[in-house]
Write a structure and sequence with these properties.
Layout (H helix, E strand, L loop, with lengths): L2 H13 L2 H8 L3 H15 L4 E4 L2 E4 L1 H24 L7 E7 L4 H15 L3 E7 L13 E6 L7 E8 L1 E5 L1 H7 L5 H4 L4 E3 L5 E5 L2 E5 L5 E2 L3 H9 L4 E5 H10 L3 E2 L9 E7 L7 H14 L4
Parallel strand pairs: 3-4, 3-5, 8-11, 8-12
Antiparallel strand pairs: 1-2, 5-14, 6-14, 7-12, 7-13, 9-10
Helix pairs in contact: 1-2, 1-3, 1-4, 2-3, 5-10
Length: about 290
Amino acid sequence: MDIEELQTFVEVADAGGITPAARRLGVSKSIVSRRLGRLESELGVQLLARTTRGAALTEAGVAFRDHAAKIVAEIEMARQTILPNGDLRGRLRIAVPLSVGPSQFAPMLAEMARRHPQLHIHAAYSDRFVDLIAEGFDCSIRVGYLPDSNLMVRRVGPFYGKLVASPDYVRAHGAPDTPAELLSHEALMQGTEAWQFTYGDKILMVQPQGRFKADNGTALVPAALAGLGIAWLPDCLVDEHLASGALVHVMTRYPPPVAGVYVVRPPGQYPARKVQVLTELLIEHLGELP
């Protein structure tokens, strides 16, 4: 029984189809189909029921999937154990936030590639929450306040932000003193998100409104500089503008709660060693305690 056939079956089972599994494995759909065909022929059972919408596990496929996944994980761990000097090889496909990823995380990914010359790193930058399984990612780096999910999450560092506005906006409209007053101001937003603030040991939440929206934080910085409203932005995007006086910090008595930087991976008992190494590298740079 070929290990590539087992790995391919596990990927198709987890991704729900041949197309996303092929993307994750970095091979063509025809290769995935041939591997599945050989595996089913060898076992003498149908593992997947192919449909126009994807592939669903048969009863035999459900029973076989966990055994196959354990075998693949054990062989991968054995391969990594015998690599010299802890080297990594293969491919790490990772989703990274667009707003802060190029400046904050790209240098760390470059450092990982430098340390592991046999590892191929493919990073995709976007502020949307990608579907790790369907889109074939090994993991993602996410920042902020994460909603509950069935994904495996590891916090690797803190993430700070604040409310800012231009001096022109404050002169024309004033600055809010409380979260309630924020509702009468123009907010610069990425969507329909709620903003959180701390007051003592309490967390206050408001649903701001505004006419200017963008799908990433970097694009909101020029809007804040132009005096279009108040923005909740990461420190790394606004520190230089605060230092120059182009932006000012507002509503300082109600700071946002400290958010986090997280490594998120698909569910599974055994995280890939390349994901573990990435997690350790981010902790090393970001200073999160074990």
